[in-house]
Amino acid sequence: MSISESDATFDGSIPKLYEMYFVPMVFVHCADELVKRLSGRKLSNVIEIAAGTGVVTRAMTSILPESVSIIATDLNEPMLEQAKFVGTKRPVEWRQADAMSLPFSDEMFDAVICQCGVMFFPDKAKAFAEVRRVLRPGGVFVFNTWDRIEENEFIDTVTTALAKLFPANPPRYHARVPHGYHDRTTIERDLVEAGFTALPEIETFAARSEARSARIPALAYCQGTPMRSEIEERDPTLLSDATVVAAKAIAERFGTGQISGKIQAHFVTVEK
User: Fold this and answer.
1) Which fold has domain 6-271?
2) Spatial CB neighbours of 141, under 8 Å, sequence gap ≥ 6
3) Cβ–Cβ under 8 Å, residues 159 and 174
4) I want to staple 217 with a disulfide (CB 3.0 to 4.6 A). Which of 109, 154, 173, 270 is the partner?
């Protein structure tokens, strides 16, 4: 799977729309579930990579003891700025950082956590090796990654609908990147290549994604993610049309008014 620079670029109006529509629709469900995997561990400091607009960061400040220091990092400064704007219940350190080359000393953290960010790393094994480097012996790496797109109903519906609007060159960002790293064997292989010797625990977690109307997921996916760039590259005048087409397809499948669709992700826990 090839990752282009635009695939991992969240700028312009995307961070605000992402936080407004995408986070409450899909990421809140997974954030607490991910952070719970740190519960019961003896922790003094935790680093989050690919923190986005801070939904997991906020969950950590609510769930983890105040004695645990938290550093939240992301490659995209606009996403971090949005996270800072939303804020957290207690202070955290925000840092712009590339997961492929983390600016931290060896064996510095008790835990590394990442929600639905590993898919964006150009070289997963290299990024995982960086995670292992900054973990103390006995430390834990906890992350999740979306399952195949067909197991995630809203975005599968949107992707299918947009293929009809752009038949010659369908926007496939979500199938290619966010939902493109779901094979368990590949994940295990990349962790081994990174130097992890413990057997990872991989759990598949399903939940229901809810929205007030079909327009919410249409806006979230078409305008609040890098798929927006794919649409505008094909025809910059069709962003609104694409959003309408997506909303119509979602309404046809899930109904009008309050709607609900399945989401599914793999949760991975591996110790150093």
Assistant:
1) Rossmann fold (3.40.50)
2) 111, 112, 113, 114, 128, 131, 132, 135, 196, 268, 269, 270, 271, 272
3) yes
4) 154
DSSP 8-state class, residue 97: -
Is the separation of the CB atoms in 15 and 82 below 8 Å? yes
Give the burial string for 196-206 (b: 16+ CB within 10 Å, else e): beeebebeeee
Please say whether the beta carbons of 229 and 13 come within 8 A.
no
Which residues, other chains included, contact 155 with Cβ-Cβ below 8 Å and sequence gap of 6+?
149, 174, 178, 179, 217, 221
N residues, the chain: 272
Asked whether 159 and 171 are in contact (CB, 8 A), the reply is yes
Residue 239, helix vs strand vs coil: helix
Closest CA to 209 of 59, 86, 14, 30: 30
Amino acid at 204: T
Instruction: Note the pTM of the prediction, 2 decimals.
Output: 0.93
What whole-number distance in Å separates Cα of residue 219 and Cα of residue 231? 13
Reading the chain (272 residues) residue by residue, the pLDDT tens digits are 554 444 345 546 677 888 888 888 988 889 999 999 998 899 999 999 999 999 999 999 999 999 999 999 999 999 999 999 999 999 999 999 999 999 999 999 999 999 999 999 999 999 999 999 999 999 999 999 999 999 999 999 999 999 999 999 999 999 999 999 999 999 999 999 999 999 999 999 999 999 999 999 999 999 988 899 999 999 999 999 999 999 999 999 999 899 999 999 999 999 99
The domain spans of the chain are 6-271
